[in-house]
Each structure stands twice: as C-alpha cells, then as structure tokens.
Design brief:
Blueprint: H1 9-28, H2 35-47, H3 52-59, H4 63-75, E1 79-83, E2 91-95, H5 97-117, H6 123-149
Antiparallel strand pairs: 1-2
Length: 158
Amino acid sequence: MKNEGIERFGLLVHDTARLLRARFEAHGRALGLSSAQWRLLVRLLREGRATQARLADLMEIEPISVSRLVTRMEQAGWVERQPDPHDRRIRLVAPTPKTLDAFSDIRSVAANVYDEAMAGLTAPERQTLIAALTVVLNNLSGAHSADAASPRGEEDEQ
C-alpha cells in the first residue's frame, strides 16, 4: 500500500526546522542572541557544563566553530570557561548567572515559537506529533549508531 504524500516527508521536516530556526533567530535578537548562540545555550543548560568538544558533537558543528562561538559568548557574559576539577588540561564551558537569569525568558520565547508552530493542532494532535517525531529521531539515531558500529560502514549498503 502506497503511503500518499510520504515523498514530502524529508522536505517538510527540513523546511520546518529551517523556519523554526528563523523564528528563534528573530525572537532571540531581543535577548541579543544569534541562532547558533541560542542553540549553544539550550544545549549547555541541559548539560550543566560541557567541554567544547561535547558541545560541537551536540550541535553537529566543527570544534573550531564552537571555540569561536564560546569566545564571543564569553565576551558577552553568557558563558564562562572553567577548569575541570578532575583534569586540569580540560576547560569546561558553563552558563553564567546572566544565562541562568535569562532562562525563564528563553523558555518563554521557546513556548511562544512552539505555540505559533503548532497553532491549529489540538493537544492530542500535538502529543501525537511529538511522539511520532521522537520515534523518527530514535530510528535515525539507531541507524546512525549501527552504521558507525559496522566495520565496513556504508559499503554494507551497496
């Protein structure tokens, strides 16, 4: 049985993510944050403290880009670099009191963007959407892990 409209799935997900980033960018300007800075703070708030390498992995960007981003954010007072208590060679990135104070504003902006994005959906439809996207994410995360664990990687698919 052919699933009508399934060929649009990839474009819909991509365009939705792009438009969500644009909305966050627009709202983030009020807090003085770019889209990349916004994403870094959200990841950092979830992690507590993290190495730049961990942040690069989470954000799926190059470590040098994270380093530059952290430097700009440190200068603006959003983050600080701290020594790792277990390894003095490592520096951890941590949110500052400025970030923690702005956290409720950040959450409020996120809630407004999500409400705008899901306007017209009932509460059960929103829950179904989130559950379905979680399954898709888990499926793809599992597939990525399987590819990485495979000794031949992509060659297995040929």
